[in-house]
From TrEMBL:
Pfam family, one: HATPase_c
Domain Histidine kinase: 1-92
Organism phylogeny: Bacteria, Pseudomonadati, Pseudomonadota, Betaproteobacteria, Burkholderiales
Catalytic activity reported: ATP + protein L-histidine = ADP + protein N-phospho-L-histidine
Full protein name: histidine kinase
Species for this entry: Caballeronia sordidicola
Top-level taxon of origin: Bacteria
Length: 93
């Protein structure tokens, strides 16, 4: 797993913090991707470990409250995997 933290500028010129979490596992099947951020959603590959399917829904709701965003995309080839990108506005202090 790789976690990258950077600062970017969005299309309006606003400074944004960006956190990218990426792995090289199997990724998320296309048919499950629209449900990733819904409460209580657990994909087919959730394994035997527990979990209520709330984590990504909570991240999504917190980002929306702070004028940010979170989305999923497939990690680039050749390794592939999952990539989650969290973006939030930065304030100057």
């Amino acid at each position: 797993m790789t976690v990258t933290v950077t600062q970017t500028v969005d299309e309006t010129g606003r400074r944004m913090g960006e956190i990218v979490v990426e792995d090289n596992g199997p990724g998320v099947p296309l048919e499950q991707q629209p449900d990733l951020f819904k409460r209580f959603f657990r994909g087919d590959g959730h394994g035997v470990e527990g979990g209520a399917g709330l984590g990504l829904a909570i991240v999504h709701d917190i980002m929306v409250l702070h004028n940010g965003s979170v989305h999923y995309e497939d990690a680039p080839a050749p390794e592939g995997g999952a990539r989650f990108i969290v973006r939030m506005p930065l304030k100057t202090v």
